[in-house]
Structure formats: C-alpha cells, structure tokens
Amino acid sequence: MGRVTERRKVIRIRGERVSERPDTLVAEEPLEIRLNGKPLAITMRTPGDDFALAAGFLVSEGVLGGAADLQNIVYCAGATQDGSNTYNVVDVRTTPGVVLPDITLERNVYTTSSCGLCGKASLDAVRTTARFPIADTPPVRLEPELLASLPDRLREAQRVFDRTGGLHAAALFDEEGHLVDIREDVGRHNAVDKLVGRALQSGGLPLSRSVLLVSGRASFELAQKAVMAGIPVLAAVSAPSSLAVDLAAETGLTLVGFLRGANMNVYAGEHRIALRAAATQD
Predict the structure, then answer these.
(1) Which pTM does this prediction carry?
(2) Alpha carbons 212 and 194: distance in angstroms, whole number
C-alpha cells in the first residue's frame, strides 16, 4: 500500500549555511478507477481513502447517488506484469439494476492533481444530472463571522500538511461551524471526492446542511462536485473561476471566495449569508 508521505534527501541552503538532510514529502501515485470492470479514469492522488475517492468521483459523474447504488469497491490484483497488487487500481461495482448515465467507459480519462476532469466543463450537463437540486432545499443561514472562523479550523486539522507543506485540504462543516470531516490530498479535487465518498458510504448524501471549505481556489470542477453532492455552500480561501461563478448562479450554490480573516467575497447565493447592512458600491 502506498504511503501518505515519503522521505527524500534534500540540500538545504540557509544563507551561507549548506546542509544535507532527509525531508518529508507528500506521496503522489496514480490511481486507476474502473467501473464494473472497465477502465474509466486515472488520477494522481495521495494514497489513502482510495475507496472513498473513487466513490466520490462517481458521485460527481452522476453514477452514484447513494449508498444503495454501490455494491462494492475492491483493489484489483494482478495490476502489474508479475501479478502483484500495487493498490493503485480500484474497481467500483454498482448494484445490479443501477442505470448508468451516458458516459464513455472507454475514454480512460486522465485527471491530474491540479485540474481534475478539465474537459467536462458543461453547465447544462451538471444541471441536468444533479440528483439533489440545491435550490429546492431549506436554506442554510450563515453568519459572516462563522464563515470567517472556518479557515483557521481547517488549518488546525491539517496534520499531514504540517509535515510536508504540500497538500490541499477540503473540509465539511455543519451550519453551526462544527468540523464534520476533513481530507487532505495532493489534488484539491481528490480531497473533495474523498469527503463526498465517505459521506456516500455512510449514507450521508445529500449534504444539504453542510459547508464545503477548500484550501485553494474554487474551480468549476469543485463547484460541480459540491452541486452533485447537494452541498449548498462552497467557500474557498482563494479566487473562484468565472465558470464556477456561472455554475453557482445557475444552480443556486452559495459561492464564497477570498475567505481570509473577516474578509470575503460572495459571488453567488448571497441569500444564505446573514448580511446586516445594505450593500454599498465602492
């Protein structure tokens, strides 16, 4: 089984001082996801929570909508020529009778640790395949002060980041600001998939009373994953993309960016934020 961290030699230069020492790095290995025995996607990820990652990925693809859709997930033996198990190939088996969406199983999508499934940037596709319409759920009402407190709570819970400095994090909070779950991964989209997959496995979908906080930017893909899991609020410490804002506006997702200290920008779904003063134009 791959490890979360690995040790490598590094030459440290600190001004005029030069030294040699081992350094702790975040591990990155490929994971092939198969659906009912057929190759579907390859992602570069940090080993760990692989079954949850695969399940969460299939939620965002519209394949799985709940624990009843999932029969089992297994590591595939014989993934190498010598027949050994690398623990880098998983096969997801859906429950008999589950109707698969119109996806091409032979496409063998390659997803990187930085962008994920970049080629599927379709607002219409997400809107038509989402199983948990966010606009139809009772609105979550959040105080700005509560949102402002979440990045510090996420950072405090990033155990592997403290050792490596090289991981993205995604966390789920409830509407009272309590940390529900946190996952770290070299890929920001993988961290979200691990959260969503764990929720699916425990029967927790849709996540209609949750806030998703990500440690980087809010891309279209992360907004897509939030929508597909029924998450009403996505917050990021960095900027959103234009397509993420468009998707949020289309689906009713509350999208918050540049969440730093008491400052934040609300790009869509402001009805879920308890604003005390009328908006003013600078």
Answers:
(1) 0.87
(2) 12
